[in-house]
Amino acid sequence: RDWETPLDSFDTLVVLSNRQPYRHTRDADGSLAVDRPTGGLTAALDPVCQRAGGTWIAWGDGDGDRQVVDENDRVDVPPTDPSYTLERVWIDDDLADTYYSGYSNRLLWPICHGAVDEAKIRPGDYDGYRRVNERFAERVVPHVSGESLIWVQDYHFALVPAMIRERVPPSTTIGQFWHVPWPKPETFSRVPQARALLDGLLGADVLSFHVRRFADRFLTCVEYFLDDASVDWDASVVSYDGSDTQVVAVPLGIDADEHARRSQNLDDGVYETLSAELSIPDGTLLGLGVDRLDYAKGIEERLEAIETLFERRPRWRESVTFVQTTTPSRTDIPAYAAYGKRVRRVVDRVNERFGTDSWQPIVYTESYLTRDQLTALYRNADCLLVTSLADGMNLVSKEFVAASVDETGVLCLSDQTGAHDALGDVANTIDPTDRESVWRTIDDALRMPVREQRVRMRTLRARTAERSLSWWMSTLFETFAAATPDRSISPQG
Ligand code: F6P
What we know:
It comes from Halovivax cerinus. This is Trehalose-6-phosphate synthase. By secondary structure, the protein is α/β, with parallel strands linked by helices. It has helices at 4-7, 40-52, 63-66, 93-112, 125-140, 160-167, 185-188, 194-201, 212-225, 256-265, 268-278, 299-312, 334-354, 371-380, 395-403, 418-423, 435-447, 450-466, 469-483; strands spanning 12-17, 23-26, 32-35, 55-59, 74-77, 84-89, 148-153, 173-177, 206-209, 230-232, 237-240, 243-249, 285-292, 320-327, 362-365, 383-386, 410-414, 428-430. The protein is built from 19 helices and 18 strands. The radius of gyration is 23 Å and the shape is globular.
């Protein structure tokens, strides 16, 4: 489908996100280095902005970034072929601690992922969050002209839509995409500012989630917490404070063709070099995990299930190797630092228990992997393990499927991921809360005949290709265009 058309409905596109798509640093000799922060959100939106142009406003990382921007904090990206403008918002360390490490990731992240024991709020965290939301909302205003689309991303900016709404002309369309799960009302009620967050989000014309499950939980929370809002469940619209918010479920996809092409064209040498570097032995089956180091990903539970597998099924010893790559993240938050230690401890224990002179059951790395190296792992893996306890989407599962160009390999997928709603019944479903089910599913995957792998993988690949990144984009932009408000007449007439 063509996604130029719906984009053309708007004169200006402004995207807001916490994480930036490109980070600039200066090497010791003054030369410029550019890298791309990890994360599904930035990887997905960058190609969209490359096609659409416009401005992307995000938190700048530090001095490196400051040295490359103009007096308005702007730089054109991507560096090789600039097509849109990245505008940085600077946040000092104390404020970032309250907004990002505090309210966003000590409170909202665990609440949205149902990890209530990890949810903490410190004095000042909400105030910092509100101040940063305000700062971002203010930065949008100068960009608004004509029919503008302002597209706010994720849980870092729940208050922003209402803040923008107060500051821009009525012809402006505001969209918000919530990339993480939306919690059940009993969990959401633990947020002291529950009403303020709902009020902020309902400033948007369109609020999107990955899957219907999350959208419905949101509507339930609106009914539960906001007496003066009314929910039309059939139309999935909330009427509140004189305007409507359309609540939709549009699952984020990947550019499946691009992943398949990369995999198809990949030189075998990439895997040979990487497996030598990581000491992945030849001739064993390969189980793979690729995650940000986060308790919501169920990495510790997965490694424990692998331990049980080797205990109960000794036949797999020395004949399957599990590669776990993790990207450390949010390490100044105690829950993350503690989780990293626990994960490494399980790896050591399993390797000590079952390892031999020539084989380690778990090859664990926190090193940065290039896209080619990751593709090489996907292509060579016999099964991918996604055991998230809760996950908005999980694009790793889709990337694995797209890279499996020979149509073999087994996807073991937690039923708590958004990806499972889309791909579910042909994947090997894992119930991450049932420890028995995790190791048994891995066992089944390792024994699956190639013919059955092919049947399942073909369907997974077709679904991934159909609900691609461009499908996501056109569907959302059509929704934005359809929801574009006619506010020329005020509610009072
Ligand atoms: O929506 C989840 C998300 O914000 C994604 O961008 C990405 O998966 C991850 O969290 C990145 O986390 P952080 O920006 O805190 O490193």
